[in-house]
Specification:
Layout: H1 3-67, H2 76-88, E1 92-99, E2 102-106, E3 122-123, E4 129-133, E5 144-148, E6 152-156, E7 173-178, E8 183-187, H3 193-200, E9 206-209, E10 212-219, E11 224-231, H4 233-268, H5 271-280, E12 284-293, E13 299-309, E14 315-316, H6 318-327, H7 331-352, E15 357-362, H8 364-367, H9 372-383, E16 390-395, H10 402-414, E17 419-424, H11 431-434, E18 441-444, H12 446-450, H13 457-467, E19 471-474, H14 480-488, E20 493-494, H15 505-518
Length: 519
């Protein structure tokens, strides 16, 4: 075979190697976009269902507390007790005391003039009565959900059941439906009578019709249904527009990347194999960067940072080998090595200083490793430490799939480990997102600390953390001005070169001891 023939075959093979993956990635991107679309809808629907159940459970708890009252009805003491319930329980708007079905008094009126309630529309499996009613002592023509026991009724605003902020990029609509009367109680008025009838049929929980996808969560016990839906058209329109813009550029980038990667792979000679060997030979070392209280500069712990020592004595930045470990499936092995190194180098020091802690970075893949909790528990017991001395850091993408991350994170917190959100603000960064995470501390990303003077997002992050009573650690503090700004805004902890760079274990221990003695 001639050289020209070989070159032609090689060229064809290279073109196929470039265009086939690009074409496949485009198809997979479209498929993934659809899956993300459905996941957004399902996630929003699940949040709405959780909110609805929370409202119902709180109402029942308030009724049980009311039933425990043993004094005379409609006295000043009784009215005060009912007012305390309506004030202290978040979703309860009004409390009524009934004799049979006749209201006698309420948290608003000592002498209620409300007409008798009709027979309840529903009686739950645990014996509570439920109505959709306009009964109130204020003369307002507003429907409320009423949940009652033998002598008490609590009034709940229907919008409380579905008061959920959407966090996706496409508009999401939500409505609360009475499955008995086919009546929309609260939420978006965009549901037609025909669609209501279709939704109220005892059928599938997901309906796709007329360019919209509906997700139905039915509560047969209360006779309610929560309907969430999204239009498909904006998704496909945006996809087609982006495809026409990015496909030519994607082809060009693919060619350039193929050229660069071929040269890089020749030089590195299988980076995955080299990293795996480095892990097996325990060539990955761990440095420690102190974390201090900003008010007094006293050390409270440190962050463990992996370093890969090269043959020439230099250290390969973790920004290079951590993504390699993630994408090549080596992250659980690397994390295990880092954890074992933390204990072997600082176990004795931590035992001598029970008020200090070390935070260890985890990747989402680590949460799928069933051996991680046992490894931590075994090493903590061996070195006679408290679980609170080992904190675990996850980036925001580690919380992106609650079905996977939620149980693992909850188990680690239950074992006594604090959970940090690392590099907070570079991902989802919203109050509705943050309030649903099971975490203790957020770490403000260095990029926001660098931009304190001309970006308003950092105070926004601080306000969110304060609203949810989360502690904060600012990363990358390098100047006295940054320190004073962060202290002024109430950030409790920080790390950065203003205090110390990441240090080898011996140098870190010396620095920490000097800091503790100075304090």
């Amino acid at each position: 075979m001639t050289n020209r023939r070989l070159m032609s075959l090689a060229t064809v093979a290279l073109v196929l190697a470039i265009f086939l993956p690009v074409s496949l990635s485009i198809w997979m991107s479209h498929r993934q976009a659809e899956e993300n679309f459905m996941n957004d809808l399902d996630a929003y629907s699940t949040l709405a269902e959780m909110r609805s159940q929370r409202v119902i459970n709180q109402s029942k708890a308030a009724l049980r507390e009311l039933d425990a009252y043993e004094g005379a009805p409609c006295t000043a003491e009784h009215l005060l007790a009912m007012r305390r319930i309506s004030y202290s329980w978040r979703y309860v708007r009004e409390v009524l005391y009934l004799d049979g079905l006749q209201p006698l008094c309420s948290s608003l009126q000592a002498d209620s003039h409300i007409p008798p309630f009709p027979a309840p529309g529903k009686i739950t499996s645990d014996g509570f009565r439920a109505w959709l009613t306009r009964h109130n002592d204020l003369g307002l023509a507003k429907y409320m959900v009423a949940i009652g026991s033998a002598h008490y009724v609590v009034m709940v605003d229907p919008t409380s059941f579905i008061d959920i902020l959407p966090h996706g990029t496409s508009p999401v609509y939500i409505a609360l439906i009475n499955t008995k009367t086919h009546q929309r109680i609260a939420g978006s008025p965009r549901l037609t009578a025909a669609r209501l009838a279709q939704i109220n049929q005892q059928g599938p929980t997901r309906i796709m019709t007329n360019g919209e996808v509906y997700r139905i969560q039915r509560d047969a016990d209360m006779g309610l249904a929560i309907v969430t839906w999204m239009a498909i058209a904006p998704l496909e329109k945006n996809w087609h527009r982006l495809l026409m813009v990015w496909l030519p550029l994607g082809l060009l980038v693919s060619l350039l990347l193929a050229f660069v990667m071929l040269r890089l792979l020749r030089r590195l000679h299988s980076p995955r194999a080299q990293l795996q060997d480095a892990i097996h030979r325990r060539e990955i070392t761990v440095f420690f960067q102190p974390i201090v209280e900003l008010d007094n500069g006293k050390i409270v712990g440190a962050e463990a940072l992996a370093r890969w020592r090269q043959k020439d004595g230099s250290y390969l930045a973790p920004d290079i080998f951590i993504p390699l470990a993630v994408h090549s499936g080596l992250m659980p092995q690397l994390t295990k090595l880092v954890i074992e190194t933390v204990f072997s180098t600082l176990g004795s020091w931590l035992r001598q200083h029970p008020d200090q802690h070390i935070s260890i970075n985890l990747e989402p893949a680590d949460l799928l490793d069933p051996t991680l909790p046992d490894l931590l528990a075994r090493l903590i017991a061996h070195w006679q430490l408290s679980p609170s001395q080992i904190a675990l850091e996850l980036t925001e993408r580690g919380f992106a799939d609650p079905a996977v991350s939620g149980p693992a994170i909850s188990a680690l917190r239950a074992a006594g480990h604090a959970i940090y959100i690392d590099d907070f603000g570079t991902g989802y960064c919203s109050l509705s997102y943050l309030q649903n995470l099971d975490v203790d501390i957020i770490k403000i990303d260095k990029s926001f600390v660098d931009a304190l003077e001309y970006k308003a997002v950092t105070p926004h992050i601080i306000d969110m953390a304060k609203a949810l009573r989360l502690a904060m650690v600012a990363e990358g503090i390098e100047t006295e001005g940054q320190l004073q700004w962060l202290k002024k805004y109430g950030v409790e902890y920080g790390q950065g070169w203003l205090y110390s760079k990441a240090l080898p274990p011996d140098a870190f221990i010396q620095w920490a001891e000097n800091n503790l003695h100075a304090a």
